[in-house]
Description:
Elements: H1 22-65, E1 68-70, E2 85-92, H2 100-105, E3 119-127, E4 133-136, E5 142-145, E6 148-149, E7 155-156, E8 159-162, H3 163-183, E9 189-193, H4 195-204, E10 208-212, E11 216-218, E12 223-225, E13 228-232, H5 234-242, H6 251-269, H7 272-275, H8 278-291, E14 292-295, H9 300-315, E15 319-322, E16 325-332, E17 336-341, H10 343-354, E18 370-372
Parallel strand pairs: 1-14, 2-9, 4-15
Antiparallel strand pairs: 2-3, 3-4, 5-8, 6-7, 9-14, 10-13, 10-18, 11-12, 16-17
Helix pairs in contact: 4-5, 4-8, 5-6, 6-9
Amino acid sequence: GPGQGGPGPGGPGRTGSPAGSGSSGRSWKFRRPRSWKRLIGWTALTVVVLLIATSIGTYFWADNKLHRTVNLTALPAQPPLGKGTNYLIAGSDNRGNLTAAQQKALHTGSDDEGQYGNSDSMMILHIGANGDTLLSLPRDSYVTIPAFTGASGTKYPASTHKLNTAFSWGGGALLAQTVEYNTGIHIDHYAEIGFGGFVNLVDALGGVQMCLDKPIVDPASGANFKAGCQTFNGAQSLAFVRERHQEAQQDLTRMANQQKFLAAVAHQAATPSTVLNPFKLYPVLSAGIDTLSVDTQMSPYDLAQMFLGMKDITSGSGHSLTVPIANANYYTPTDGDALLWNMSQAKTLFGELQNDQPITVTGTDAGSDVAGN
Length: 373
């Protein structure tokens, strides 16, 4: 009855909605927050789904773009599978993707080294539980090239030559076979970096910053740099990693520069300004993949692990060294001056890498002429 707060617009005691609002007012007031929460939830779910779809799409896009050329599983007499993961990284001077004008502008010379070109840079990147290690193998290392079968089916006996001869004779497959034969290290993956794509990769990154302790002038490579920190474009980067004529240790200093430069490229490619910007990330990924020839088992995940390992090297959490050397000017009757490894120390180092043990052998000092940032 009147004055008893029964059912009505205000509910018991008239503590509900203002008169005249009715049930529609209560519905609007209480459902609005639930609608916003639902919208936020669906938006978040949509973003997550898009990110997952984009990541999956990017993975398969990259997987289809990889240029796979070397079947490591077909190599004869491979060492047993080691612990950790070992990447063999080679820098190739094969100029097949450069025009004559580009070869002249980049000071690369003509491509007269046969089907596979030549390799001035060979490194083993070991990724394991005791930190990552980047080990340079000098191109003039005097090693045994094991018996192999050429592309035409001709069988060649084992012989002793410089390490880069293996690449010029049989490309990445024979190089990997030779490295395994002489080190006892099982090579899990192979990556070959070529001239033209390397230039495009650096340009896609917007350049790579390097810091030089001294000026560098090498007309043969086109290097002409002042001392101090500076950003190299693609052509300048190529000139830098190829220069050696002004260096007292020639190839050894060049290898040290190449190690540090590759680590700097990996570091810059992993920065948020690259990874979080799709307009930069995809050109970098495309140029990076176009730079490479890899083994048939290489996946985009394996490739990412390789670059993250290089990034670890530049951050100081790993080792960067050159194989221990006994004689850097060893005369040979067929190959001129070559380089002999210190086999006592080298065997210990190779065993530590194969078995993923802490590194106790420091190898040859990689030098400190350059600091990559």
